[in-house]
Every structure is written in C-alpha cells, then in structure tokens.
Amino acid sequence: MRYFADVAALARKDVLLEFRSRDTLPAMLLFVVSALVVFHFALPADTSETAETGLLWIALLFTALLGLARAFVAEREQRVLDGLVLTPCDRSAIWLGKAIGVVAFLVLAEVVALPAFALFFGPLSWELVAAVALADIGLAAVGTLLAAMAAAGRARELLLPLLFLPLVIPIVVGGVGASVADHPARYLGFLGLYDAVFAILSWASFEYVVTE
Amino acid sequence: MISARGLGRDFGAKRVLRGLDFEVPRGGFLLVTGRNGSGKSTLLSLCAGLLAPTAGELDVEVDRGEIGYLAHEPLVYRELTALENLELYGRLYRVPERRERVGMLLERFGLWDARHERVGAFSRGMAQRLALCRTLLHEPRLLLLDEPYSALDDDAAGLVDALLSEVAGEKTVIVTSHDPERISRFTSEELALG
Asked: Given phi > 0 = left and psi -120 to 50 = alpha, else beta, which region is B169?
C-alpha cells in the first residue's frame, strides 16, 4: 500500500507541476493539432484510410516524444532526482508515478487530437480508440525509462528520439493494424502484450538507470 | 560508520579523487576542506551513494533513507511551494507526524511565512534554508552537508551554527566548507583534499 501511496504522491506532483508551469501539455496540443491540419491539406482527396490512419499514428508518436522530452526537465535542471533517489521509497515508484503523469498528458492531448482527426479525415472506429488507449501505456512505459536515461546524458535531445523511435515501431505496427485490419483483435492483443512486456522491463530496470 | 580505503573517482579522463583513506566513526564529525575542484562535493555524492567509486572501497553503514544530504542545489521543485516540497519528501521518507515536523522546521529556519510561496520565487538564501529543512526532515543518522553556509545571511548562518552544535556527537556528520574556522569547533577530524 505504501508503494502505491508513493506512486500517487509522485504522479500528483507531476500533474501539479504541469498545471503550474504549463510547459508540456500546451506544446503537445498545439503540435498534434497543427500536424493534423498540415496532413489534411497535404494529402490528396482520394488518399486511402490506411494512409490517413498511419499519419495519425505518426502525429501521436511525435506528440508523445515531445512530452517525454520534457518529462524529467524539473528533475534534471534542479537535480531533484538525486533527492528522490535518496528517499527510502522503491525507485520504481518514481518511474511509475512519472509514467502515470505521461499517460495523463497523452490522454488529454488525444481528447483533442482524435476529434480533430475525425473532423479532418472521417469517423473514428472503436478499434482505433482502443488501440490508442493501449498504445498510450506502452509509449509511457518505454518512453519514461528512456527519458530518464536521456536526462542523465549530455546529448539528451538526440538520445531520446534515437532510443525511443526504434523501440516503439511495434506500437505503430499494432496501432495501424488494429485501426484498419479486418480482424483488429490480434493487433489489440499484440499491443497489450507489448505493454505488459515493456512495462515489466521498464519497472524492473529503472533502478539501474537512476543509480550508478 | 564510514570507511574509505584507496577511494578514487574519475570522470572520464579526469581524476577527481584518488587514494583516499579515512574513517568516520558513529557520532564522528569530519570536516572536508580543499580548493575548488578538489573533489569535496564528489566525496559527499560518493558517501550518499549517488556516485560509485571508480577505485578503492567505500563502506557506508546506513540505509539511504537515513542519510540527510545537503547539495549545492536545494533538490526541490521550483514550481512547488516550500510546504508542498517538504510534504512530498515527508511522505516519501515516511516521516511520522509529518505536518508537525514540517511546520517545526519551517518555523526554525524562518520560512513559515513563505511556506505557500513557490520556491522559484525564493532568494538563494531562502532556497538554502529550505534545503536544510529537507535535509533534516526525516531526522537522518548521517548528515552530508556541502557548504551549509552557502548564500546564508548572518542570522541564517547562526541557525546552521546552532544545528551543527546540536548534532555534533549525536549524529555522524561530514561537512565541506571554505570557512573551516567557523566549523572547526564542532569537528573531531579534518580531511584536506587536493
């Protein structure tokens, strides 16, 4: 129970920090809506649904990257991570609290992005919404771990996309597949499996990322 | 409580500490002096477990939750208030009667009236006083204090004097300072680096 109380306190802190600083969420919202507007005007009228859906996933992926690039800014610039690491709380609670915050920001960005996609490109299917929800968990799980690794390095602006984008290709495959395939259940199952595997790996390895 | 044998730490090609031997018994008070860049802060980071030695051995016989670490930075969130920062740390350190303890420390270090202000609006001296509150919040057994007088005015420096006098002999303390005369009356041992 203490573990989850720590996670809740850390996640609440991240939401409060964002509410105060407004550094991340407005940038994510502006980016995803702008990207969809650009795609709307760049694509010819007879573009296939598959291509449109693929572009939505690209927009969502880079929106997540934008949020993740800022995920550990406060901890890095003020060295707060050192303070958190010294507390007796399980270090994976720091990862889980941060990942929950990232999921919350992604969901808020998608609350705007998905209706915008529907407006520009056509109605949303339940499979697409389910795939986005599952993808959020995987993106946050992997992305939070990599953001913490990148925060400790010098070339962090370069390091995060270099590590993140190859690792989330399965999410794009599963997300686009679930959105356009005749049998989306297989792809949704694949996304769920990805979430489970990478959440466990990230949870277990976070301690080694934040300590020498 | 702390013993180092041949302790060394490199950052890439740069050797910051090398061949350091010292012991600090339980209740001991070690003053670490040295010029800028001699490795004083690195030594405290090693003792806190935030860095790993690249040579030699370092044994610190306390759990990480029993360490009070005062760094150059206050290790608090600028967008949170002083009270919110200490509440967060108090939760994570499982401080019993957290609110009373936080209130007592804020009073002691003269930050009670500023408790609802964001730390980003604090002066350097106020941030240092908040950092001292954070360091002492969980009543640590081992205190690692990096330049505790940094940015403090005379009144606040007097509070640090009182604190050091109170913990000398009670807790194990390692302090770095550019002002050894001020601290030497509390110390049992001195280590000069570089």
From this structure: left
